[in-house]
Specification:
Layout lengths: L1 E5 L2 E4 L4 E8 L7 E7 L6 E6 L5 E3 L8 E6 L4 E6 L8 E8 L3 E3 L3 E6 L1
Parallel strand pairs: 2-11
Antiparallel strand pairs: 1-3, 3-8, 4-5, 4-9, 5-6, 7-8, 9-10, 9-11
């Protein structure tokens, strides 16, 4: 039972990355997937969520207009497309599935150089 993030890396300011979050090991279909991030010395913050019915909520003001959450239902993958990246987006990015319990991934590092 796990969530696995991938797609992080080093990118220059203004660049783009697409993160992936793959769900495996559980059969629940009705779950929400949320992307979070945690920068060094800061609290973890919620970025965006996609519900089982496709409803999307962007929580992070600084992500609005730059980040897009989407999913491939068949592959059980949720994506976070991040455009116009800034150095302040540098953080470890985590995904979380919620289906009566929370299941976190290990995180993927995103570093944006100025």
């Amino acid at each position: 039972v796990q969530m696995e993030e991938s797609g992080g890396g080093l990118v220059q300011s203004g660049g783009s990355l697409r993160l992936s979050c793959a769900a495996s090991g559980f059969s629940a279909d009705y779950y929400a997937t949320t992307w979070h991030r945690q920068a060094p010395g800061k609290e973890r913050e919620e970025i965006a969520c996609i519900m089982w019915d496709g409803e999307i909520t962007i929580y992070l003001d600084s992500a609005k207009g730059r980040f897009t959450i989407s999913r491939d239902i068949a592959k059980r993958i949720v994506y976070l497309q991040m455009n116009s990246l800034k150095p302040e987006d540098t953080a470890v990015y985590y995904c979380k599935a919620t289906f009566g319990r929370d299941l976190w991934g290990q995180g993927t590092q995103v570093t944006v150089s100025s």
